[in-house]
Amino acid sequence: NAGVTQTPKFRILKIGQSMTLQCAQDMNHNYMYWYRQDPGMGLKLIYYSVGAGITDKGEVPNGYNVSRSTTEDFPLRLELAAPSQTSVYFCASSYSRPGAGNEQFFGPGTRLTVL
Amino acid sequence: QKEVEQDPGPLSVPEGAIVSLNCTYSNSAFQYFMWYRQYSRKGPELLMYTYSSGNKEDGRFTAQVDKSSKYISLFIRDSQPSDSATYLCASQAAGNKLTFGGGTRVLVKP
């Protein structure tokens, strides 16, 4: 199993450009998540999905969009890149049951710089 | 006030020492508690996962949860230079999202 994979590893964008960060998992997990991590800070949840076709906002969703058309894939879209979106983005997945805890498995991250 | 608080460190210890890491949390609904290890420029990896109060041991790692004082601890025995990393605590209410602390950077010196 590859686990959670993310592409690209690095990207530099100009202000106003858009891009899609790709995330895929091969563990048949129902839940998937997108986080951002700023230097010296913990992880902040951007969006999450509890299954194909279902997404919901996290703590910091502004400036981002997501879709979940399959169980495996959960792309994150930045429409109009801003310097405040310079960060490291992590995708994660978990198998979760209602009312239970869940262990999240993380991808290697995408390091994004907006200039 | 952040829901999960963690001293950012850095925490520097000599090789072989015990590393003691702590978090406090404010949400009484949290029932699940995790520790993640994150090496520089890598994604977090799950180290320990505990439910409710009590201790859990896995090799050199011991996790403790005291729900009465809302205190989470991780101990690393016989620390190695390879333990140098940032350690993130996380808490969760049943069926809810994880809330992470800011992470503590640990440096184990040979």
Can you walk me through this structure?
- Chain A is globular, with a radius of gyration of 13 Å.
- Chain A has no helices and 11 strands.
- In chain A, 33% of the residues are buried.
- In chain A, the strands form 2 sheets. In chain A, strands 2, 4, 5, 6, 9, 10 and 11 form a 7-stranded mixed β-sheet that branches. Chain A has a 4-stranded antiparallel β-sheet with strand order 1-3-8-7, with no helix packed on it.
- Chain A is mainly beta.
- In chain A, a hairpin with a 5-residue loop joins strand 4 and strand 5.
- Chain B has 110 residues and is mainly beta.
- Chain B contains no helices and 11 strands.
- In chain B, a hairpin with a 4-residue loop joins strand 9 and strand 10.
- The N and C termini of chain B lie far apart (37 Å).
- Chains A and B meet through strand 5 and strand 10 of A and strand 4 and strand 5 of B.
Supply the key terms.
heterodimer, A: 115 residues, mainly beta, seven-stranded mixed β-sheet, four-stranded antiparallel β-sheet, 11 strands, globular, B: 110 residues, six-stranded mixed β-sheet, five-stranded antiparallel β-sheet, 0% helix
Number of strands of chain A: 11
Largest inter-chain contact set = A-B, 24 and 25 residues
Please tally the helical runs of chain B, counting DSSP H or I stretches of 4 or more residues: 0
Judging from the principal axes of the Cα atoms, what is the shape of chain A?
Answer: globular
User: Beta fraction of the residues of chain B?
Assistant: over 45%
The average pLDDT value of chain A, as a whole number, equals: 93
Care to count the β-strands of chain B? 11
Main beta-sheet strand count, sense and barrel state of chain B: 6 strands, mixed
* Uncertain parts of chain B: none
- What's the helix-strand series of chain A? EEEEEEEEEEE
Helical content band of chain A: under 10%
